[in-house]
């Protein structure tokens, strides 16, 4: 989890526990000025680009090739 201050161009990342208590402590420390912050690289906020929304489908799998196992001789002891 990361917190960004766009006015000061600083950010901080959560390094502790990703739990309700850990997040609360992280945000409390930042609000009291005790959290570690770092400057945003490039001294400006990155541009936000638009993308197409996800259609909810998984990617296409490549077609499976048929493998002929008729010439393979396995005995139960070999497994």
TrEMBL record:
Ranges annotated as biased composition (Acidic residues): 61-79
Taxonomic superkingdom: Eukaryota
Residue stretches in coiled coil: none
Positions of region (Disordered): 37-79
Gene Ontology biological process terms from the UniProt entry: response to endoplasmic reticulum stress
GO cellular component, one term: endoplasmic reticulum lumen
An MF annotation (GO) of this entry: isomerase activity
Keywords linked to the UniProt accession: Isomerase
Species whose genome carries this gene: Papilio machaon (Old World swallowtail butterfly)
Name used for this protein in its record: Protein disulfide-isomerase A6
This protein's record includes keyword Amino-acid biosynthesis: no
């Amino acid at each position: 989890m990361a917190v960004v201050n766009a006015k000061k161009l600083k950010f901080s990342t959560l390094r502790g526990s990703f739990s309700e208590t850990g997040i609360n402590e992280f945000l409390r420390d930042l609000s009291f000025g005790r959290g570690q912050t770092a400057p945003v690289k490039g001294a400006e906020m990155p541009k936000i680009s638009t993308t197409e929304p996800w259609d909810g489908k998984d990617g296409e799998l490549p077609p499976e090739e048929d493998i002929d196992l008729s010439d393979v001789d396995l005995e139960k002891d070999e497994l």
